[in-house]
Amino acid sequence: MKKDLLSVSDLSRNEVEQLVEQALQMKKGGTPSLLSGRTLALLFEKPSLRTRVSFQMAMHQLGGHSIYLSPDEVGLGKREPVADVARVLSRYVDGITARTFSHETLRILADHSPAPVINALSDQEHPCQALADLLTIYEKKGRFSGLTVAYIGDGNNVANSLLLSACLVGIDFCLASPPGYDVKEQVLNQGRQFAAFSGSRIRLAGNPNEAVKDADVIYTDVWSSMGQETEAEKRRLAFSGYQVDGELLSRAKRDVLFMHPLPAHPGEEISPGLLDDPRSVVFDQAENRLHMQKALLARILPSNPKGSD
């Protein structure tokens, strides 16, 4: 049966934990050619560094191939309806990884593609980033239960997936966002449902200082994402006081980790030099995109290559 990954909620706790374990094994013990003969299409509406390269290298290291399709080459919904792109592309490739502006585009792709579709970022979620984040947290802390992640800043797609994944595996999640920029109620409610089963808690803090108290991980993201350039000045004013710096880290636990999905804007959401702070695991986090992508592809892509008996 086809398995898509459009949201963290498409996975169970057991599946997430298995992915983390498999990614760790692949990172430590090498990568067998599990996907020999398979081809993955990278269908991107947005530019990317980590997502594109990690998926391409993951397929290469697993013995498969990837095809990158730029916005100009395909023109999703412009040159050709999204549904038709899905119908045609799935005849050629074993899986589709899509990076889109609208989450609805992903849903249409998944609805019309017999091949599995993976969300490589949409306006609602970034599940591949969140899974790599969990891998990093587990690698550094050795557990999920009993940990607290404090997220400071915009309640965006990264925050949505991080909240859901944390609650799924039993990590407490605390969020501090300016008024009007918090995580949507629908995501909070879904997170609370996961938390009810895993035993984790969600807390909304009034300010960053309150949020990071007793935090094991402090996480932030850019104030203005791609597509929000016209709001940049408005957002800089709204997020004044939400910068993560060394002083804020010092208010958390002594062994706190600092995380950021990159790219970062020093002088805005983080202070200059913070990426190189000893508590920062940002570049380990970026590397782990590769290892989690390998685990994910090995699990989601079909067992037989396209065109085989």
How are the strands of the biggest sheet laid out side by side? 7-6-5-8-9
What is the annotated CATH architecture of the largest domain?
3-Layer(aba) Sandwich
Encode the helix/strand succession as letters.
Answer: HEHEHHEHEHEHEHEHEHHEH
What is the oligomeric state here?
single chain
Structural class by helix and strand composition: alpha/beta
Would you tell me which CATH topology of the largest domain applies?
Answer: Rossmann fold
What portion of the residues fall into strands of 2 or more residues?
Answer: 5-15%
Question: What's the count of strands?
Answer: 9
- For the record, the count of structural domains works out to 2
Mean pLDDT: 95
Helix content: 40-55%
Could you give me the name of the CATH homologous superfamily of the largest domain? Aspartate/ornithine carbamoyltransferase
Low-confidence stretches: none
Helix segment tally: 12
End-to-end C-alpha gap: 17 Å
Q: Please state the CA-atom Rg, rounded to the nearest Å.
A: 19 Å
Question: What can be said about this structure in brief?
Answer:
This protein is α/β, with parallel strands linked by helices and 309 residues long. 42% of the residues lie in helices and 13% in strands.
Polypeptide structure, described:
With 309 residues, the chain is of the alpha/beta class. The chain folds into two domains: 8-125 and 289-300, 3-Layer(aba) Sandwich (Rossmann fold), CATH 3.40.50; 129-286, Rossmann fold, CATH 3.40.50.1370. It contains twelve helices and nine strands. The protein has helices at 13-29, 50-61, 71-74, 82-92, 103-112, 127-141, 157-169, 185-198, 208-211, 232-238, 246-250, 282-300; strands at 39-44, 65-69, 95-99, 117-119, 148-152, 172-176, 202-204, 217-220, 257-259. It has a five-stranded parallel beta sheet. Strand 6, helix 8 (185-198) and strand 7 (202-204) form a beta-alpha-beta unit. Helix 7 (157-169) runs parallel beside helix 8. The mean pLDDT is 95.
